[in-house]
Amino acid sequence: MNVCYKCGYMGEDVSDHFRDEKLFGYLFCLYYPRYEPEHCFVAEDNGKIVGYILGTPDTRRQERLFMAKMGWRILLRTFLITSWRYFPDLKVILHFLRLPRSTAPHDEILEKYPAHLHIDILESYQRRGIGTKLMQCFEDHMRRLKVKGIHLGTSEGNYKAIPFYKKMGFQIIHTERYGMWPDAPEKRGLIFAKSLI
Questions:
Q1: Number of folded domains in the chain?
Q2: pLDDT in tens, 7-66
Q3: 3-class SS of residue 180
Q4: Mean pLDDT of 151-158
Q5: In angstroms, rounded to a whole number, what is the distance separating the alpha carbons of residues 10 and 17?
Q6: 191 pLDDT band (50/70/90 cuts)?
Q7: Cα–chain-centroid distance for residue 41?
Q8: For residue 58, what is the enclosing H or E element?
Q9: From residue 132, how far is each of 12, 62, 161 by CA, in Å?
Q10: What's the rounded Cα separation, in Å, for the pair 157 and 25?
Q11: What is the domain range of residue 140?
C-alpha cells in the first residue's frame, strides 16, 4: 500500500492530491494481494517492499470480485473515516464518480487482452532493471496460464512509465477524452496492451 501511495499520482507521490492512504489502497491495490496473491510479484530490499506488479488473468472475473470484496470496504471507509478526517478527498472521489464512462471498447479489449496489471516501483529504485524483471515474471506467469494478452491503464502524465511500457512491447490501443485527476484534466487516460501469443 505504501508503494502504491508513493507512485499513485501519474507515477508520483499522491499525498498532495489524496490524503487517505488506506482508502487509496482499497481503491487501487489491496484487492490483488488479498484475493489473487498467486498473480502478484514484489521486489524487496532487505525485507522492505520497494516495488510490485499486481494483476489478474481474467479482468471480467476480477471486476465482479472487486465489487463484492472491496466495494463495502470502500463505502464504509469513505463515509466513516474519509468524510470527516480527510474531507478534501471527497472532492476527488466525487470527480472519479462523475467521470464520463470510458469510451474504450471494453469487451473488445478483454477479448484480445483479458489480463491486466498494475506496476509501481519506488522512485529511488527505478532504472535498476526491477520493472523489467517484474514484467517478465508476470508475463511468463500469464503465458503459463495460457492468457492471450495483457492490458493496463495509465495517464499521459505518467512520463516515466510510458517509455517503459513501449520498451516492454506494449502499444497504446486507446486514448480517453479526459483525465482521471481533477487537477490535471488535460492528462488523458491511456490503455496499453500486449499480445502474449
A1: 1
A2: 999 999 999 999 999 999 999 999 999 999 999 999 999 999 999 999 999 999 999 999
A3: coil
A4: 96
A5: 11
A6: very high
A7: 14
A8: none
A9: 19, 24, 12
A10: 21
A11: 2-195
Of 49, 7, 53, 3, nearest to 32 by C-alpha is 53
Q: Are 4 and 29 in contact (CB under 8 A)?
A: yes
Q: Which residues, 6+ apart, have CB-to-CB distance to 127 below 8 Å?
A: none
Global pTM reads 0.93
Quick one: average pLDDT of 153-177?
96
> What amino acid occupies position 180?
M
Task: Say if CB 52 and CB 43 are below 8 A apart.
Answer: yes
Grid coordinates given for 180: 482521471
pLDDT in tens, 73-83: 999 999 999 99
- Domain of 172, CATH number, reads 3.40.630.30
Set of cell numbers at residue 78: 469513505
Can you tell me which residue has the cell 517478465?
136
